Fold:
Amino acid sequence: MTQRPDPVAPADAEARALARTLLQATHAALAYTDVQTDTPGISRIAFGLGPDGAMLTLISALAPHHAGLSAHPACALMLGEPSGKGDPLTHPRLMIRATARFIAPVAPDRPAIRDHWLGQHPKAKLYIDFADFAFVRFQPVSALLNAGFARAYRLTSDDLK
Structure:
């Protein structure tokens, strides 16, 4: 039996640049493990990069994905939205496998993260200081960039910096 060539290429400079562009998104889809059913769940979340370039979100303890990430930090993010034209599957999108780490309310870098977050998400001012909200840092493990028809790339965590 002949082995088919891998259709997913290693990242090149163009793929890394496109991935970094997609990382400028203000929202993402988050895949997590639901603690009640031990099955996959998905949620749309606010997303942004912190002052140090780390991937972040701000979530309420009332959200099912908060419990999911607390119990099972392995997760995945999907960034990229189709424009109004053409087949949505031809538009670039980035899937990131990551590990979620909650940022303690007393962490020394939290004030800078908070201020930076509000610059990107000004409406969060309404709830950012509620006791049930926490920042989560996503540590990327690997990524898959679909840059359009027949253009797929594997990325490492270093490729996303």
